[in-house]
Specification:
The structure is a homodimer of 324-residue chains. Chain A is of the alpha/beta class and 324 residues long. Helix content of chain A is 46%, strand content 15%. Chain A contains 15 helices and 10 strands. In chain A, the strands form 2 sheets. A 6-stranded mixed sheet of chain A has the order 1-2-10-7-8-9, with helices on both faces. Chain A has a 4-stranded parallel sheet with strand order 5-4-3-6, with helices on both faces.
Chain lengths: 324, 324
Protein backbone atom coordinates (compact mmCIF):
# COMPACT_ATOMS: atom_id res chain seq x y z
CA UNK A 1 0.00 0.00 0.00
CA UNK A 2 1.23 3.43 -0.84
CA UNK A 3 -0.08 6.82 -1.91
CA UNK A 4 0.39 8.48 -5.27
CA UNK A 5 -0.22 11.97 -6.59
CA UNK A 6 -3.63 11.08 -8.05
CA UNK A 7 -4.79 9.97 -4.59
CA UNK A 8 -3.82 13.39 -3.26
CA UNK A 9 -5.63 15.24 -6.05
CA UNK A 10 -8.78 13.16 -5.48
CA UNK A 11 -8.62 13.72 -1.71
CA UNK A 12 -8.25 17.45 -2.31
CA UNK A 13 -11.34 17.43 -4.52
CA UNK A 14 -13.33 15.71 -1.75
CA UNK A 15 -12.23 18.09 1.05
CA UNK A 16 -11.37 21.50 -0.46
CA UNK A 17 -14.77 23.00 0.40
CA UNK A 18 -14.35 22.00 4.06
CA UNK A 19 -10.75 22.92 4.81
CA UNK A 20 -9.02 26.31 5.11
CA UNK A 21 -6.42 27.04 2.46
CA UNK A 22 -3.86 28.17 5.01
CA UNK A 23 -1.65 31.17 4.25
CA UNK A 24 2.09 31.00 3.58
CA UNK A 25 3.44 33.65 5.97
CA UNK A 26 6.67 35.62 5.90
CA UNK A 27 8.00 38.08 8.47
CA UNK A 28 10.98 40.34 7.73
CA UNK A 29 11.77 40.36 11.47
CA UNK A 30 11.72 36.56 11.66
CA UNK A 31 13.93 36.40 8.56
CA UNK A 32 16.40 38.67 10.35
CA UNK A 33 16.45 36.30 13.34
CA UNK A 34 16.82 33.23 11.12
CA UNK A 35 19.40 34.80 8.84
CA UNK A 36 17.46 33.43 5.86
CA UNK A 37 14.09 33.90 4.16
CA UNK A 38 11.42 31.69 5.74
CA UNK A 39 7.91 30.92 4.51
CA UNK A 40 5.63 29.39 7.10
CA UNK A 41 2.70 27.21 6.10
CA UNK A 42 0.35 28.06 8.96
CA UNK A 43 -1.66 24.92 9.81
CA UNK A 44 -2.63 26.19 13.27
CA UNK A 45 -5.15 28.22 11.26
CA UNK A 46 -6.61 25.02 9.82
CA UNK A 47 -10.07 24.08 11.10
CA UNK A 48 -9.67 22.30 14.51
CA UNK A 49 -6.24 23.94 14.88
CA UNK A 50 -4.04 21.48 13.01
CA UNK A 51 -3.46 19.80 9.62
CA UNK A 52 -5.10 16.63 10.99
CA UNK A 53 -8.53 17.88 9.88
CA UNK A 54 -7.39 17.41 6.28
CA UNK A 55 -6.64 13.69 6.64
CA UNK A 56 -9.72 13.13 8.79
CA UNK A 57 -12.02 14.68 6.17
CA UNK A 58 -10.24 12.76 3.42
CA UNK A 59 -10.66 9.38 5.15
CA UNK A 60 -14.25 9.87 6.32
CA UNK A 61 -15.36 11.31 2.96
CA UNK A 62 -14.13 8.08 1.32
CA UNK A 63 -16.28 5.79 3.52
CA UNK A 64 -19.42 4.01 2.26
CA UNK A 65 -22.82 5.13 3.51
CA UNK A 66 -23.05 1.80 5.38
CA UNK A 67 -19.75 2.50 7.15
CA UNK A 68 -20.89 6.04 7.97
CA UNK A 69 -24.07 4.59 9.48
CA UNK A 70 -22.00 2.46 11.92
CA UNK A 71 -19.46 5.13 12.91
CA UNK A 72 -15.70 5.66 13.07
CA UNK A 73 -13.02 5.14 15.71
CA UNK A 74 -9.60 6.71 16.07
CA UNK A 75 -6.72 6.81 18.54
CA UNK A 76 -4.88 10.05 19.04
CA UNK A 77 -3.03 12.25 21.51
CA UNK A 78 -5.38 15.03 20.52
CA UNK A 79 -5.05 16.64 17.10
CA UNK A 80 -6.18 13.65 15.04
CA UNK A 81 -8.94 13.25 17.65
CA UNK A 82 -10.25 16.76 17.08
CA UNK A 83 -9.98 16.41 13.31
CA UNK A 84 -11.89 13.12 13.33
CA UNK A 85 -14.48 14.41 15.79
CA UNK A 86 -15.41 17.41 13.64
CA UNK A 87 -15.13 15.57 10.32
CA UNK A 88 -17.44 12.85 11.70
CA UNK A 89 -19.95 15.52 12.71
CA UNK A 90 -19.82 17.12 9.26
CA UNK A 91 -20.37 13.74 7.56
CA UNK A 92 -23.14 12.88 10.05
CA UNK A 93 -21.45 9.84 11.57
CA UNK A 94 -20.45 9.05 15.18
CA UNK A 95 -16.84 9.14 16.41
CA UNK A 96 -15.23 7.21 19.29
CA UNK A 97 -11.75 8.46 20.19
CA UNK A 98 -9.12 6.55 22.19
CA UNK A 99 -6.87 9.12 23.90
CA UNK A 100 -3.90 8.78 26.30
CA UNK A 101 -4.66 9.50 29.97
CA UNK A 102 -2.15 12.39 29.89
CA UNK A 103 -3.45 14.10 26.75
CA UNK A 104 -3.67 17.90 27.23
CA UNK A 105 -6.98 18.79 28.88
CA UNK A 106 -7.89 21.29 26.16
CA UNK A 107 -7.53 18.61 23.47
CA UNK A 108 -9.79 16.21 25.37
CA UNK A 109 -12.38 18.92 26.05
CA UNK A 110 -12.39 20.07 22.43
CA UNK A 111 -12.74 16.53 21.13
CA UNK A 112 -15.82 16.09 23.31
CA UNK A 113 -17.10 19.54 22.27
CA UNK A 114 -17.14 18.36 18.65
CA UNK A 115 -19.45 15.55 19.76
CA UNK A 116 -17.11 12.55 20.01
CA UNK A 117 -17.05 9.89 22.75
CA UNK A 118 -13.59 9.76 24.43
CA UNK A 119 -12.10 6.51 25.82
CA UNK A 120 -8.83 6.85 27.79
CA UNK A 121 -5.79 4.52 27.87
CA UNK A 122 -2.47 4.63 29.72
CA UNK A 123 0.34 5.76 27.41
CA UNK A 124 3.40 3.50 27.64
CA UNK A 125 1.47 0.66 29.33
CA UNK A 126 -1.50 -0.16 27.12
CA UNK A 127 -1.45 -0.29 23.32
CA UNK A 128 -3.77 2.21 21.70
CA UNK A 129 -3.59 0.19 18.49
CA UNK A 130 -4.96 -2.91 20.30
CA UNK A 131 -7.70 -0.95 22.08
CA UNK A 132 -8.73 0.74 18.83
CA UNK A 133 -8.75 -2.51 16.84
CA UNK A 134 -10.76 -4.28 19.56
CA UNK A 135 -13.45 -1.58 19.76
CA UNK A 136 -13.62 -1.38 15.96
CA UNK A 137 -14.18 -5.17 15.74
CA UNK A 138 -16.80 -5.33 18.47
CA UNK A 139 -18.91 -2.41 17.22
CA UNK A 140 -18.31 -2.57 13.47
CA UNK A 141 -16.59 0.83 13.50
CA UNK A 142 -14.26 2.03 10.76
CA UNK A 143 -10.81 2.62 12.22
CA UNK A 144 -9.16 5.78 10.87
CA UNK A 145 -5.49 5.50 11.79
CA UNK A 146 -3.63 8.75 12.50
CA UNK A 147 -0.99 8.28 9.78
CA UNK A 148 -0.69 4.73 8.47
CA UNK A 149 -3.79 5.05 6.29
CA UNK A 150 -3.54 5.90 2.57
CA UNK A 151 -6.65 8.14 2.65
CA UNK A 152 -5.24 10.07 5.61
CA UNK A 153 -1.82 10.52 3.97
CA UNK A 154 -3.55 11.66 0.76
CA UNK A 155 -5.52 14.25 2.75
CA UNK A 156 -2.39 15.61 4.43
CA UNK A 157 -0.85 15.81 0.96
CA UNK A 158 -3.32 18.61 0.19
CA UNK A 159 -0.87 20.84 2.11
CA UNK A 160 1.61 20.10 -0.67
CA UNK A 161 -0.90 20.99 -3.40
CA UNK A 162 -1.57 24.34 -1.76
CA UNK A 163 2.15 24.89 -1.28
CA UNK A 164 2.95 24.30 -4.95
CA UNK A 165 0.32 26.89 -5.89
CA UNK A 166 1.64 29.39 -3.35
CA UNK A 167 5.27 28.85 -4.40
CA UNK A 168 4.27 29.58 -8.02
CA UNK A 169 2.10 32.62 -7.13
CA UNK A 170 4.92 34.25 -5.19
CA UNK A 171 7.62 33.03 -7.58
CA UNK A 172 9.63 31.62 -4.68
CA UNK A 173 12.93 29.85 -5.13
CA UNK A 174 12.41 26.80 -2.91
CA UNK A 175 14.66 23.77 -2.77
CA UNK A 176 13.89 22.56 0.76
CA UNK A 177 10.94 22.10 3.12
CA UNK A 178 11.22 21.48 6.87
CA UNK A 179 8.25 19.56 8.26
CA UNK A 180 7.21 18.59 11.79
CA UNK A 181 7.08 14.80 11.93
CA UNK A 182 5.34 12.29 14.19
CA UNK A 183 4.16 9.16 12.40
CA UNK A 184 5.03 10.72 9.07
CA UNK A 185 1.61 11.18 7.44
CA UNK A 186 2.03 14.90 6.82
CA UNK A 187 5.64 14.56 5.70
CA UNK A 188 4.86 11.64 3.37
CA UNK A 189 1.85 13.43 1.88
CA UNK A 190 3.74 16.66 1.23
CA UNK A 191 6.81 14.83 -0.12
CA UNK A 192 4.60 12.88 -2.56
CA UNK A 193 2.87 16.06 -3.76
CA UNK A 194 6.19 17.85 -4.17
CA UNK A 195 7.77 14.98 -6.10
CA UNK A 196 5.00 15.40 -8.68
CA UNK A 197 4.71 19.20 -8.76
CA UNK A 198 8.13 20.53 -7.70
CA UNK A 199 10.65 17.71 -8.15
CA UNK A 200 13.56 20.01 -7.23
CA UNK A 201 12.20 20.43 -3.70
CA UNK A 202 13.37 18.06 -0.95
CA UNK A 203 11.52 17.57 2.35
CA UNK A 204 13.36 17.20 5.67
CA UNK A 205 11.69 16.11 8.90
CA UNK A 206 11.95 17.80 12.30
CA UNK A 207 11.38 16.05 15.65
CA UNK A 208 12.08 16.57 19.36
CA UNK A 209 15.49 15.39 20.62
CA UNK A 210 15.19 11.93 22.17
CA UNK A 211 12.14 11.18 20.04
CA UNK A 212 13.73 11.45 16.59
CA UNK A 213 12.74 7.98 15.40
CA UNK A 214 12.22 9.24 11.85
CA UNK A 215 15.62 10.97 11.64
CA UNK A 216 17.35 7.84 12.93
CA UNK A 217 15.30 5.55 10.68
CA UNK A 218 16.11 7.68 7.62
CA UNK A 219 19.76 7.63 8.56
CA UNK A 220 19.79 3.83 9.03
CA UNK A 221 17.50 3.08 6.09
CA UNK A 222 15.14 1.04 8.27
CA UNK A 223 12.43 1.69 10.85
CA UNK A 224 13.74 2.03 14.40
CA UNK A 225 11.63 2.82 17.47
CA UNK A 226 11.88 5.56 20.09
CA UNK A 227 13.08 4.29 23.47
CA UNK A 228 10.11 5.90 25.21
CA UNK A 229 6.99 7.84 24.33
CA UNK A 230 6.95 9.81 27.56
CA UNK A 231 8.62 13.00 28.72
CA UNK A 232 8.32 15.30 25.73
CA UNK A 233 6.47 18.64 25.63
CA UNK A 234 5.72 17.82 21.97
CA UNK A 235 2.79 15.48 22.71
CA UNK A 236 1.33 15.90 19.22
CA UNK A 237 4.24 14.29 17.40
CA UNK A 238 5.58 11.63 19.75
CA UNK A 239 4.87 8.26 18.13
CA UNK A 240 6.50 4.88 18.78
CA UNK A 241 8.04 4.23 15.35
CA UNK A 242 7.73 5.54 11.76
CA UNK A 243 4.69 4.16 9.94
CA UNK A 244 4.67 1.05 7.79
CA UNK A 245 3.18 3.01 4.88
CA UNK A 246 4.72 6.41 5.58
CA UNK A 247 8.32 5.29 6.09
CA UNK A 248 8.95 3.76 2.64
CA UNK A 249 7.66 7.02 1.11
CA UNK A 250 9.97 9.10 3.28
CA UNK A 251 12.90 6.73 2.70
CA UNK A 252 12.45 7.27 -1.05
CA UNK A 253 11.82 11.02 -1.00
CA UNK A 254 13.03 12.75 2.21
CA UNK A 255 16.47 14.32 2.55
CA UNK A 256 16.95 13.42 6.22
CA UNK A 257 15.78 14.56 9.63
CA UNK A 258 16.61 17.20 12.25
CA UNK A 259 16.09 17.09 16.02
CA UNK A 260 15.63 20.10 18.33
CA UNK A 261 15.61 20.61 22.10
CA UNK A 262 12.53 21.60 24.12
CA UNK A 263 14.20 24.92 24.85
CA UNK A 264 14.64 25.62 21.13
CA UNK A 265 11.01 24.66 20.52
CA UNK A 266 9.73 27.04 23.20
CA UNK A 267 11.90 29.84 21.81
CA UNK A 268 10.48 29.19 18.33
CA UNK A 269 6.96 29.47 19.80
CA UNK A 270 7.85 32.83 21.34
CA UNK A 271 9.33 34.14 18.08
CA UNK A 272 6.17 33.04 16.22
CA UNK A 273 4.02 34.87 18.78
CA UNK A 274 6.11 38.00 18.37
CA UNK A 275 6.69 38.09 14.63
CA UNK A 276 3.87 36.05 13.05
CA UNK A 277 1.04 36.53 15.58
CA UNK A 278 0.55 32.80 15.34
CA UNK A 279 -0.15 30.41 18.24
CA UNK A 280 1.92 27.25 17.75
CA UNK A 281 1.91 24.18 19.97
CA UNK A 282 5.26 22.58 20.85
CA UNK A 283 4.87 19.69 18.42
CA UNK A 284 3.91 22.13 15.67
CA UNK A 285 6.94 24.34 16.28
CA UNK A 286 9.82 21.86 15.92
CA UNK A 287 10.30 22.59 12.20
CA UNK A 288 10.51 26.32 12.91
CA UNK A 289 12.92 25.57 15.77
CA UNK A 290 15.07 23.59 13.31
CA UNK A 291 14.92 26.46 10.79
CA UNK A 292 16.09 28.90 13.47
CA UNK A 293 18.59 26.83 15.43
CA UNK A 294 19.72 23.65 13.65
CA UNK A 295 23.16 23.24 12.11
CA UNK A 296 23.76 22.03 8.56
CA UNK A 297 20.40 23.15 7.19
CA UNK A 298 19.86 22.49 3.49
CA UNK A 299 20.44 25.54 1.29
CA UNK A 300 17.27 27.09 -0.12
CA UNK A 301 16.83 30.74 -1.13
CA UNK A 302 13.30 30.50 0.23
CA UNK A 303 13.00 27.89 2.98
CA UNK A 304 9.48 26.53 3.54
CA UNK A 305 8.62 25.56 7.12
CA UNK A 306 5.50 23.55 7.91
CA UNK A 307 3.95 24.74 11.17
CA UNK A 308 1.62 21.87 11.86
CA UNK A 309 -0.67 22.81 14.76
CA UNK A 310 -1.62 25.26 17.49
CA UNK A 311 -3.57 23.28 20.09
CA UNK A 312 -1.56 24.33 23.12
CA UNK A 313 -3.03 25.13 26.52
CA UNK A 314 -2.58 28.44 28.32
CA UNK A 315 -0.01 27.19 30.84
CA UNK A 316 2.38 25.81 28.21
CA UNK A 317 2.00 28.90 26.04
CA UNK A 318 2.67 31.17 29.02
CA UNK A 319 5.85 29.14 29.62
CA UNK A 320 6.97 29.83 26.04
CA UNK A 321 6.22 33.56 26.43
CA UNK A 322 8.60 33.86 29.38
CA UNK A 323 11.53 31.90 27.95
CA UNK A 324 14.63 34.03 27.47
CA UNK B 1 -11.27 65.39 0.06
CA UNK B 2 -12.68 61.93 0.09
CA UNK B 3 -11.90 58.45 -1.20
CA UNK B 4 -13.78 56.56 -3.87
CA UNK B 5 -13.74 52.98 -5.04
CA UNK B 6 -11.34 53.68 -7.93
CA UNK B 7 -8.80 55.04 -5.42
CA UNK B 8 -9.03 51.75 -3.55
CA UNK B 9 -8.61 49.66 -6.70
CA UNK B 10 -5.56 51.73 -7.73
CA UNK B 11 -4.04 51.46 -4.26
CA UNK B 12 -4.58 47.70 -4.34
CA UNK B 13 -2.78 47.51 -7.69
CA UNK B 14 0.20 49.38 -6.22
CA UNK B 15 0.49 47.25 -3.06
CA UNK B 16 -0.90 43.76 -3.77
CA UNK B 17 2.56 42.26 -4.40
CA UNK B 18 3.77 43.54 -1.02
CA UNK B 19 0.90 42.73 1.32
CA UNK B 20 -0.46 39.41 2.61
CA UNK B 21 -3.95 38.52 1.44
CA UNK B 22 -5.08 37.63 4.94
CA UNK B 23 -7.37 34.62 5.45
CA UNK B 24 -11.02 34.82 6.50
CA UNK B 25 -11.12 32.38 9.42
CA UNK B 26 -13.99 30.46 10.94
CA UNK B 27 -14.03 28.22 14.00
CA UNK B 28 -16.99 25.97 14.83
CA UNK B 29 -16.06 26.23 18.52
CA UNK B 30 -15.98 30.04 18.38
CA UNK B 31 -19.34 30.01 16.58
CA UNK B 32 -20.74 27.93 19.44
CA UNK B 33 -19.50 30.51 21.96
CA UNK B 34 -20.86 33.41 19.91
CA UNK B 35 -24.15 31.71 19.11
CA UNK B 36 -23.75 32.83 15.51
CA UNK B 37 -21.47 32.19 12.54
CA UNK B 38 -18.40 34.45 12.60
CA UNK B 39 -15.81 35.07 9.89
CA UNK B 40 -12.65 36.72 11.11
CA UNK B 41 -10.52 38.76 8.76
CA UNK B 42 -7.12 38.11 10.31
CA UNK B 43 -5.02 41.27 9.95
CA UNK B 44 -2.59 40.26 12.72
CA UNK B 45 -1.18 38.03 9.95
CA UNK B 46 -0.57 41.09 7.78
CA UNK B 47 3.10 42.05 7.32
CA UNK B 48 4.22 44.09 10.41
CA UNK B 49 1.33 42.55 12.38
CA UNK B 50 -1.52 44.90 11.49
CA UNK B 51 -3.57 46.34 8.61
CA UNK B 52 -1.56 49.56 8.86
CA UNK B 53 1.05 48.18 6.46
CA UNK B 54 -1.56 48.39 3.68
CA UNK B 55 -2.15 52.14 4.08
CA UNK B 56 1.55 52.82 4.59
CA UNK B 57 2.49 51.04 1.35
CA UNK B 58 -0.34 52.77 -0.46
CA UNK B 59 0.73 56.26 0.64
CA UNK B 60 4.47 55.79 0.15
CA UNK B 61 4.02 54.10 -3.24
CA UNK B 62 2.13 57.21 -4.41
CA UNK B 63 4.99 59.63 -3.57
CA UNK B 64 7.20 61.24 -6.21
CA UNK B 65 10.82 60.19 -6.52
CA UNK B 66 11.81 63.62 -5.19
CA UNK B 67 9.63 63.09 -2.09
CA UNK B 68 11.10 59.63 -1.61
CA UNK B 69 14.60 61.13 -1.77
CA UNK B 70 13.76 63.47 1.16
CA UNK B 71 11.98 60.94 3.38
CA UNK B 72 8.70 60.47 5.23
CA UNK B 73 7.45 61.25 8.72
CA UNK B 74 4.56 59.75 10.67
CA UNK B 75 3.06 59.89 14.17
CA UNK B 76 1.69 56.72 15.66
CA UNK B 77 1.18 54.76 18.85
CA UNK B 78 2.89 51.86 17.13
CA UNK B 79 1.11 50.02 14.35
CA UNK B 80 1.16 52.82 11.77
CA UNK B 81 4.77 53.38 12.87
CA UNK B 82 5.75 49.81 12.04
CA UNK B 83 3.85 49.88 8.76
CA UNK B 84 5.50 53.13 7.68
CA UNK B 85 8.94 51.99 8.84
CA UNK B 86 8.88 48.80 6.74
CA UNK B 87 7.13 50.40 3.75
CA UNK B 88 9.77 53.17 3.77
CA UNK B 89 12.50 50.55 3.76
CA UNK B 90 10.91 48.69 0.85
CA UNK B 91 10.58 51.93 -1.16
CA UNK B 92 14.14 52.91 -0.22
CA UNK B 93 13.26 56.09 1.65
CA UNK B 94 13.93 57.19 5.25
CA UNK B 95 11.24 57.25 7.95
CA UNK B 96 11.05 59.40 11.09
CA UNK B 97 8.33 58.31 13.54
CA UNK B 98 6.82 60.40 16.35
CA UNK B 99 5.62 57.97 19.05
CA UNK B 100 4.02 58.54 22.48
CA UNK B 101 6.32 58.09 25.47
CA UNK B 102 4.10 55.25 26.72
CA UNK B 103 3.91 53.27 23.48
CA UNK B 104 4.38 49.53 24.10
CA UNK B 105 8.08 48.70 24.19
CA UNK B 106 7.74 46.02 21.52
CA UNK B 107 6.20 48.49 19.06
CA UNK B 108 9.02 50.99 19.61
CA UNK B 109 11.68 48.29 19.27
CA UNK B 110 10.12 46.88 16.11
CA UNK B 111 9.79 50.31 14.53
CA UNK B 112 13.51 50.85 15.10
CA UNK B 113 14.26 47.33 13.85
CA UNK B 114 12.67 48.22 10.51
CA UNK B 115 15.17 51.08 10.26
CA UNK B 116 13.14 54.12 11.31
CA UNK B 117 14.25 56.97 13.60
CA UNK B 118 11.89 57.28 16.61
CA UNK B 119 11.10 60.65 18.27
CA UNK B 120 9.04 60.51 21.51
CA UNK B 121 6.29 62.88 22.75
CA UNK B 122 4.15 62.94 25.88
CA UNK B 123 0.65 61.69 25.14
CA UNK B 124 -2.04 64.02 26.53
CA UNK B 125 0.40 66.94 26.96
CA UNK B 126 2.06 67.55 23.61
CA UNK B 127 0.34 67.42 20.22
CA UNK B 128 1.77 64.76 17.94
CA UNK B 129 0.15 66.54 15.00
CA UNK B 130 2.12 69.73 15.77
CA UNK B 131 5.39 67.87 16.31
CA UNK B 132 4.91 65.92 13.08
CA UNK B 133 4.00 69.01 11.05
CA UNK B 134 6.97 70.93 12.46
CA UNK B 135 9.52 68.22 11.66
CA UNK B 136 8.00 67.75 8.20
CA UNK B 137 8.33 71.47 7.47
CA UNK B 138 11.86 71.80 8.75
CA UNK B 139 13.26 68.77 6.93
CA UNK B 140 11.06 68.67 3.82
CA UNK B 141 9.60 65.31 4.84
CA UNK B 142 6.32 63.95 3.52
CA UNK B 143 3.88 63.51 6.39
CA UNK B 144 1.85 60.29 6.16
CA UNK B 145 -1.03 60.71 8.57
CA UNK B 146 -2.35 57.56 10.29
CA UNK B 147 -5.92 57.87 8.98
CA UNK B 148 -6.81 61.32 7.67
CA UNK B 149 -4.99 60.78 4.38
CA UNK B 150 -6.83 59.65 1.21
CA UNK B 151 -3.99 57.38 0.08
CA UNK B 152 -3.91 55.70 3.51
CA UNK B 153 -7.68 55.19 3.57
CA UNK B 154 -7.52 53.78 0.03
CA UNK B 155 -4.84 51.31 1.13
CA UNK B 156 -6.90 50.14 4.13
CA UNK B 157 -9.79 49.70 1.71
CA UNK B 158 -7.88 46.81 0.14
CA UNK B 159 -9.18 44.76 3.11
CA UNK B 160 -12.65 45.35 1.66
CA UNK B 161 -11.60 44.21 -1.81
CA UNK B 162 -10.21 40.98 -0.39
CA UNK B 163 -13.35 40.53 1.72
CA UNK B 164 -15.68 40.87 -1.24
CA UNK B 165 -13.67 38.16 -3.06
CA UNK B 166 -13.70 35.89 0.00
CA UNK B 167 -17.42 36.41 0.61
CA UNK B 168 -18.12 35.39 -3.00
CA UNK B 169 -15.72 32.39 -2.94
CA UNK B 170 -17.37 30.95 0.16
CA UNK B 171 -20.87 32.03 -0.87
CA UNK B 172 -21.41 33.71 2.49
CA UNK B 173 -24.61 35.49 3.41
CA UNK B 174 -23.21 38.68 4.95
CA UNK B 175 -25.22 41.76 5.84
CA UNK B 176 -22.98 43.22 8.55
CA UNK B 177 -19.31 43.80 9.33
CA UNK B 178 -17.92 44.71 12.75
CA UNK B 179 -14.67 46.67 12.54
CA UNK B 180 -12.20 47.87 15.17
CA UNK B 181 -12.09 51.66 14.94
CA UNK B 182 -9.56 54.30 16.01
CA UNK B 183 -9.37 57.27 13.67
CA UNK B 184 -11.57 55.49 11.18
CA UNK B 185 -9.22 54.85 8.25
CA UNK B 186 -9.81 51.10 8.16
CA UNK B 187 -13.56 51.42 8.72
CA UNK B 188 -13.92 54.15 6.08
CA UNK B 189 -11.86 52.20 3.54
CA UNK B 190 -13.79 48.97 4.04
CA UNK B 191 -17.16 50.73 4.05
CA UNK B 192 -16.28 52.45 0.76
CA UNK B 193 -15.21 49.17 -0.83
CA UNK B 194 -18.34 47.41 0.40
CA UNK B 195 -20.66 50.16 -0.85
CA UNK B 196 -19.30 49.49 -4.35
CA UNK B 197 -19.03 45.70 -4.27
CA UNK B 198 -21.60 44.51 -1.69
CA UNK B 199 -24.11 47.33 -1.19
CA UNK B 200 -26.26 45.15 1.07
CA UNK B 201 -23.48 44.97 3.67
CA UNK B 202 -23.35 47.58 6.47
CA UNK B 203 -20.24 48.28 8.55
CA UNK B 204 -20.43 48.92 12.31
CA UNK B 205 -17.53 50.22 14.37
CA UNK B 206 -16.23 48.79 17.66
CA UNK B 207 -14.27 50.77 20.28
CA UNK B 208 -13.25 50.53 23.94
CA UNK B 209 -15.78 51.86 26.48
CA UNK B 210 -14.89 55.41 27.47
CA UNK B 211 -13.10 55.96 24.17
CA UNK B 212 -16.05 55.47 21.80
CA UNK B 213 -15.74 58.84 20.05
CA UNK B 214 -16.82 57.30 16.74
CA UNK B 215 -19.94 55.62 18.19
CA UNK B 216 -20.97 58.88 19.87
CA UNK B 217 -20.18 60.93 16.78
CA UNK B 218 -22.19 58.60 14.55
CA UNK B 219 -25.06 58.79 17.00
CA UNK B 220 -24.94 62.61 17.17
CA UNK B 221 -24.18 63.10 13.46
CA UNK B 222 -21.14 65.25 14.21
CA UNK B 223 -17.57 64.74 15.36
CA UNK B 224 -17.15 64.70 19.14
CA UNK B 225 -13.90 64.09 21.01
CA UNK B 226 -12.92 61.57 23.67
CA UNK B 227 -12.53 63.12 27.12
CA UNK B 228 -9.10 61.58 27.50
CA UNK B 229 -6.63 59.53 25.47
CA UNK B 230 -5.14 57.82 28.52
CA UNK B 231 -6.06 54.74 30.52
CA UNK B 232 -7.08 52.20 27.87
CA UNK B 233 -5.42 48.85 27.23
CA UNK B 234 -6.36 49.39 23.56
CA UNK B 235 -3.45 51.71 22.76
CA UNK B 236 -3.68 51.02 19.02
CA UNK B 237 -7.13 52.55 18.56
CA UNK B 238 -7.34 55.40 21.05
CA UNK B 239 -7.47 58.62 19.04
CA UNK B 240 -8.70 62.08 20.07
CA UNK B 241 -11.61 62.48 17.64
CA UNK B 242 -12.89 60.90 14.40
CA UNK B 243 -10.99 62.08 11.31
CA UNK B 244 -11.98 65.02 9.15
CA UNK B 245 -11.89 62.84 6.05
CA UNK B 246 -12.92 59.54 7.60
CA UNK B 247 -15.93 60.74 9.57
CA UNK B 248 -18.05 62.01 6.64
CA UNK B 249 -17.52 58.63 4.95
CA UNK B 250 -18.60 56.75 8.06
CA UNK B 251 -21.51 59.11 8.66
CA UNK B 252 -22.75 58.30 5.16
CA UNK B 253 -22.09 54.55 5.22
CA UNK B 254 -21.73 53.09 8.74
CA UNK B 255 -24.65 51.62 10.67
CA UNK B 256 -23.48 52.77 14.12
CA UNK B 257 -20.90 51.88 16.74
CA UNK B 258 -20.44 49.46 19.63
CA UNK B 259 -18.31 49.84 22.77
CA UNK B 260 -16.83 47.01 24.84
CA UNK B 261 -15.13 46.77 28.24
CA UNK B 262 -11.47 45.89 28.77
CA UNK B 263 -12.59 42.67 30.40
CA UNK B 264 -14.61 41.69 27.33
CA UNK B 265 -11.64 42.55 25.11
CA UNK B 266 -9.26 40.36 27.12
CA UNK B 267 -11.77 37.49 27.03
CA UNK B 268 -12.05 37.87 23.25
CA UNK B 269 -8.25 37.63 23.04
CA UNK B 270 -8.32 34.42 25.06
CA UNK B 271 -11.04 32.90 22.88
CA UNK B 272 -9.05 33.80 19.75
CA UNK B 273 -5.97 32.13 21.23
CA UNK B 274 -7.96 29.01 22.00
CA UNK B 275 -10.14 28.66 18.91
CA UNK B 276 -8.35 30.54 16.11
CA UNK B 277 -4.70 30.19 17.18
CA UNK B 278 -4.40 33.88 16.45
CA UNK B 279 -2.54 36.45 18.57
CA UNK B 280 -4.66 39.61 18.80
CA UNK B 281 -3.73 42.84 20.57
CA UNK B 282 -6.39 44.56 22.71
CA UNK B 283 -7.15 47.25 20.14
CA UNK B 284 -7.46 44.59 17.46
CA UNK B 285 -9.87 42.49 19.50
CA UNK B 286 -12.67 44.99 20.26
CA UNK B 287 -14.72 43.99 17.19
CA UNK B 288 -14.52 40.32 18.21
CA UNK B 289 -15.44 41.32 21.77
CA UNK B 290 -18.48 43.15 20.38
CA UNK B 291 -19.43 40.11 18.27
CA UNK B 292 -19.23 37.89 21.37
CA UNK B 293 -20.66 40.15 24.07
CA UNK B 294 -22.53 43.19 22.74
CA UNK B 295 -26.29 43.53 22.85
CA UNK B 296 -28.41 44.50 19.85
CA UNK B 297 -25.99 43.24 17.24
CA UNK B 298 -27.14 43.59 13.63
CA UNK B 299 -28.57 40.41 12.17
CA UNK B 300 -26.33 38.68 9.63
CA UNK B 301 -26.31 34.96 8.80
CA UNK B 302 -22.55 35.26 8.42
CA UNK B 303 -21.12 38.06 10.55
CA UNK B 304 -17.73 39.38 9.38
CA UNK B 305 -15.39 40.60 12.12
CA UNK B 306 -12.29 42.62 11.30
CA UNK B 307 -9.44 41.65 13.62
CA UNK B 308 -7.08 44.54 13.00
CA UNK B 309 -3.74 43.77 14.65
CA UNK B 310 -1.64 41.52 16.85
CA UNK B 311 1.23 43.65 18.16
CA UNK B 312 0.79 42.85 21.84
CA UNK B 313 3.62 42.29 24.31
CA UNK B 314 4.07 39.12 26.34
CA UNK B 315 2.85 40.60 29.65
CA UNK B 316 -0.48 41.83 28.26
CA UNK B 317 -1.03 38.58 26.37
CA UNK B 318 -0.28 36.54 29.50
CA UNK B 319 -2.91 38.65 31.29
CA UNK B 320 -5.48 37.74 28.63
CA UNK B 321 -4.56 34.04 28.93
CA UNK B 322 -5.38 33.98 32.63
CA UNK B 323 -8.69 35.89 32.51
CA UNK B 324 -11.65 33.79 33.58
Amino acid sequence: MTVNFTDIERAHQRISHLITKTPLLNSPRLDAIAGRRLWLKAEPLQVTGSFKFRGACSAISALSSEALRRGVIAYSSGNHAQGIALAAKLFKTRATIVMPHDAPANKVANTRAYGAVVVHYERGVESREDIGADLARRHGLSLVKPYDDPAVIAGQGSVGLELSEQIAERELSVSAILCCCGGGGLSAGIATAMAATNPGVTLYTAEPEGFEDTARSLSLGERVANETEQGSICDAIVTPIPGEITFPILKALAGGGFAVSDDQTLRAMRYAFDTLKLVIEPGGAVALAAALFADNLPSSDDLVVIVSGGNVDEAMFAKALTIS
